[in-house]
Amino acid sequence: MREDDHGVEPPVDQLCEQIVARHHAYLRRTLPVIVEDFARLGDHDGAGGQLAETRGVVADLVQQLNGHLSKEENVLFPALVALAQAEREGGGRPALPFPTVLHPIRMMETEHERIEVLMARLRALTREFVPGDDSSAAWRQCLAQLSQLDADLREHHRTENEELFPRALELERRLP
Fold it and tell me: Which of 33, 41, 73, 98 is deepest in the core (most CB within 10 A)?
């Protein structure tokens, strides 16, 4: 998401759209499937005695992510889109529901850290998403889903923390 086909970084509002279309859409499709697949697992599936705790961490993660996506899509991203539109139209800083986008950005970064702690716990519980030799196909599938989720969340957070958020703060500073 760093640059488009012409080597140009997309405007902040387009970057928000790309994040929603790629990462948020992935999470909205994938999280219910993961929850459903974990609900079907039994102790006989080779989860190494960690199934109940793993299910609990997955449930916490899903709850955190659903709230996080809602805040980004309904609070932060609309504010960033408004800033980008104001700059494009040559206007001043638009009225926002907060004095600066710094505050919701810091909240999102804090939530990213909480989500990363939960993913680290899942990696520890599942031995880095590696199934044991006696694992069922269902357990292997759940671990593969968690591994894919982990990779997507890492890229999602990197894109926001290292690209979107710094650019949004710079955009806000440029507006009169």
Answer: 41
